[in-house]
Design a protein that fits this description.
Layout lengths: L1 H64 L3 H8 L4 E3 L2 E7 L5 E4 L7 H14 L3 E7 L2 E11 L5 E10 L1 H53 L13 H30 L6 H12 L3 E6 L6 E5 L2 E5 L4 H13 L2 E5 L14 E4 L6 E6 L3 H20 L10 H22 L3 E7 L6 H8 L4 E5 L7 H4 L5 H8 L4 E4 L2 H14 L3 E3 L4 E4 L2 E7 L15 H14 L6 E8 L6 H14 L7 E8 L6 H21 L7 E5 L4 H10 L2 E4 L8 H10 L5 E5 L12 E3 L4 H13 L2 H17 L2 H14 L19
Helix pairs in contact: 1-2, 1-4, 6-7, 6-21, 8-9, 9-10, 14-17, 15-16, 15-19, 18-20
The chain binds 6-O-phosphono-beta-D-fructofuranose.
């Protein structure tokens, strides 16, 4: 304790001394001026007195000066002696010759001769200071005149003025003492004030923060903090900690309860319990899980790339229900019934896909425009400027209405739990709630949420937030995104925030805001080759791309500027430059699914990537080897699986990514075996997969070094790391994610009775 406090006391002391020194300097200067003035007044008093005395004796002295010196001395005898501070007089001829002087003046009378001469010459009185036996003497010389008015001599009056210096010194001592007391009091006051106002509260705050970090019951922030902002922020910090702890406790309690890993069946049972009687499950998203396209004259079914579909399809397959999404495939209309419905997956139907139709203009304005040229770059910190056009916003609102209407048509007057997905449908929760307050509405945001400063540039930000806060539960991947979201709401909306429960109340409706890190399902459950069939498939790919027995690293991405593909290619280039021993022995395969290609920025990005790959390949390639295979086309699930299985390394280098499920799919593909994951610190997955080689994609040297480290990592270390990551993903799989979200949503306070009451008045949300 003493060790901690000494430097802080010294700091207050230094501050006190500095302030006291300033005060003492000013007071000292004032005291000096005061003493100087008083000294002058005293001297003036002596002068007046000397003048009066000189006037009294002047006639006698003038008479005496008419005589010879001996006669004059006789005439003046006994008249020139002083008393008290008046030492006496001396009489001089105009040339300074001493005529007569009092007995106490004789010793130093010759030293008064110069001032006497000066008075005689100027005809005006003059004064001087001299000393005799250490005593300061003040001499006033007054010119004398004869009967004709001519200068006849000088009368000098001598006073002992030691009392003036004595008085000045006394004053200085008094003032010095006063200044000393003020200085001391100032030091004490400053030390006490800083101690009680800053040092002690900050010390308590530090102590409280330490307890908050290390103990479970740290209580409220300490009282007396110097700023209300600090108190406010500390309160939030504590609330975040408590919420995180609670979530952690809940998770670990769930883990204790979970004797086995979450499965599709377990989720189904849990969902049935959470949904209760007669409540259906509806998922609504922009992207559909199955898309029908005409290829080579035939209708083909494809599963679109992206985390949303990968995560939600197994959930719907487990729980059943309806998935409402935009029918964007060119053969989608041909494959649905009169209500736009089709059962999926086509080969083993488990749930209903209901397609929503949008015109080309609507798709352009809502999806390509507002969602992907506006909100997408706004939420991802990838240095891409968001574009907000008023016309796009109108389409966005219209399309959101359309999706919401489709949900309302689907549920009719039934009870339902609606899971709204992602940034394309931010307005849907509020539209649903306004129409049917009794619906249980959850919104899951699959991408990051930026900080309030970044978000507030969106001209339609408040409407987006109001739309989202129609949901009873808003989910993000990470606690950090929840914090950012609540901060944003706090800054932009007139709402009530409950940081302890991570809830917002807007116009009487409460929304909980919680993290639910999304995940994947086990590859065993997916319809992909295994065993010998998988080995054959891998051999075929190796032959087709002439991969031989080189070390294979793989990347699987939608071709998007947030995925860090140029950074990845440059790191591979640098790796080969630095370690030429890997030329011909290391191959990187990028399975890049073209995405949002109607947006110029995406088209440019694709063109630049192809040019960059060409450049790097040209630099290093040989006749039978090239370092990068950029396979820019749609890849089905089975191809992705085969590449993930064959590659001893997977690289994820997102510049910013909500979660990134490819990282988790790779870990699942390795099933606890051998493999190295190189993972960007800016992907949400990095929080859970800390055994990956974590890189900053902007740091090419570090990135290249991580690739070398991964290639050269020993088998034991590879297995240990992969084993730990596998356990994490297995335990936190997508079924657990969905169970957690659905269970939480089922527990939110919704007055479902109002479901039977028909639409609420506009803006009236229960
Ligand atoms: O990650 C955000 C996201 O919208 C996901 O929800 C989806 O999986 C992915 O991007 C694909 O985007 P799109 O639907 O535009 O192809």
């Amino acid at each position: 304790m003493a060790l901690i406090e000494r430097p802080r006391l010294a700091r207050s002391l230094r501050l006190g001394l500095l302030i006291a020194a300033l005060i003492a300097t000013v007071l000292g200067a004032l005291a000096w001026l005061q003493v100087r003035d008083e000294r002058e007044i005293d001297l003036k008093d002596v002068t007046l007195r000397a003048e009066a005395l000189a006037q009294q004796i002047a006639p006698t002295a003038e008479g005496a000066l008419a005589l010879s010196n001996p006669e004059a001395r006789k005439a003046l005898r006994g008249r020139l002696d002083g008393y008290g501070r008046l030492l006496g007089y001396a009489v001089f001829r105009p040339d300074g010759e001493l005529v007569a002087a009092g007995s106490s003046v004789l010793d130093f009378a010759d030293r008064m001769a110069p001032v006497a001469r000066k008075a005689a010459v100027t005809g005006r009185q003059a004064s001087s200071m001299t000393q005799s036996q250490g005593i300061p003497i003040y001499a006033l010389a007054v010119p004398l005149k004869d009967s004709k008015g001519a200068s006849s001599g000088v009368l000098a009056v001598a006073h002992d003025v030691s009392f003036i210096d004595g008085r000045a010194t006394g004053r200085l001592v008094q003032y010095g003492f006063g200044i000393g007391v003020v200085t001391l009091l100032t030091v004490i006051l400053v030390v006490a004030a800083t101690w009680f106002t800053y040092e002690r509260p900050l010390h308590r705050l530090a102590d409280w923060m330490r307890r908050l970090r290390t103990e479970s019951s740290a209580g409220s922030p300490p009282p007396g903090l110097p700023s209300s902002l600090l108190l406010h922020e500390s309160d939030r910090l504590a609330a975040s900690f408590r919420a995180a702890r609670r979530a952690d406790r809940q998770l670990s309690q769930a883990a204790v309860r979970a004797e086995e890993v979450w499965t599709a069946e377990r989720l189904r049972v849990q969902a049935v319990t959470a949904l209760g009687q007669n409540r259906q499950l509806v998922v609504v998203s922009n992207r559909e899980p199955y898309m029908h396209q005409v290829e080579e004259g035939k209708v083909q079914m494809i599963v679109p790339a992206g985390g949303l579909v990968a995560a939600l399809d197994p959930v719907l397959q487990a729980c059943g229900g309806v998935w409402i999404a935009h029918g964007s495939g060119d053969a989608d209309r041909e494959t649905v019934d009169a209500h736009g419905r089709v059962m999926v997956p086509p080969e083993d139907p488990h749930y209903t896909l209901k397609r929503v139709w949008l015109t080309r203009e609507e798709e352009q304005g809502y999806y390509y425009g507002f969602a992907n040229e506006g909100l997408w770059p706004l939420c991802h910190l990838a240095h891409e400027r968001p574009l907000f056009r008023a016309a796009d916003w109108d389409y966005y609102r219209m399309a959101n209405e359309r999706f919401a209407r489709a949900v309302l048509d689907e549920v009719g007057t039934d009870r339902a739990m609606v899971l709204v997905q992602d940034y394309q449908l931010a307005l849907v929760p509020r539209i649903l709630k306004e129409a049917r307050p009794g619906l249980r509405v959850g919104l899951f945001w699959h991408i990051p949420w930026p900080n309030p400063e970044a978000f507030r540039i969106c001209p339609f930000g408040k409407s987006i937030l109001a739309g989202m806060l129609g949901a009873d539960l808003v989910g993000f991947h990470l606690q950090q995104y929840c914090n950012n979201f609540l901060e944003t709401v706090d800054r932009l909306m007139e709402s009530r925030l409950d940081w302890d429960h991570f809830a917002v109340e807007l116009k009487g409706h409460a929304s909980e805001v919680l993290p639910f890190p999304i995940s994947v399902q086990n590859w065993d459950e997916r319809n992909v080759p295994a065993g010998a069939a998988l080995a054959e498939q891998i051999a075929a790919f190796k032959a087709r791309y002439k991969l031989g027995d080189t070390y294979i690293a793989v990347g699987v991405d939608r071709v998007d500027y947030t995925k860090g593909l140029p950074e990845r290619f440059r790191a591979i280039d640098r790796f080969l430059e630095k370690y030429p021993r890997y030329l011909g022995r290391f191959t990187f395969v990028e399975l890049g699914a073209p995405s949002r290609t109607h947006i110029p920025r995406y088209r440019d990005h694709m063109a630049r990537l192809e040019a960059l790959v060409d450049e790097i390949n040209w630099k290093h390639q040989t006749d039978d080897w090239k370092p990068i295979h950029f396979l820019a086309t749609h890849h089905d699930v089975s191809t992705v699986h085969a590449f993930l299985c064959m590659a001893p390394m997977c690289i994820v280098s997102s510049l910013h990514d909500g979660m990134n499920l490819v990282a988790k799919e790779y870990v699942e593909a390795k099933a606890g075996g051998d493999g190295v994951l190189v993972l960007s610190e800016f992907a949400g997955a990095a929080r859970e997969l800390s055994d990956a080689l974590i890189i900053n994609p902007y740091d090419t040297e570090q990135f290249a070094e991580a690739i070398r480290r991964g290639v050269e990592m020993g088998a034991d270390e590879r297995r240990e790391r992969m084993e730990r990551m596998f356990r994490t993903v297995e335990e936190h799989n997508v079924y657990r994610w969905a169970a957690a979200f659905i269970t939480r949503l089922a527990a939110t306070r919704v007055d479902e009775a109002s479901a039977d009451d028909g639409p609420a008045a506009s803006g009236q949300i229960v």
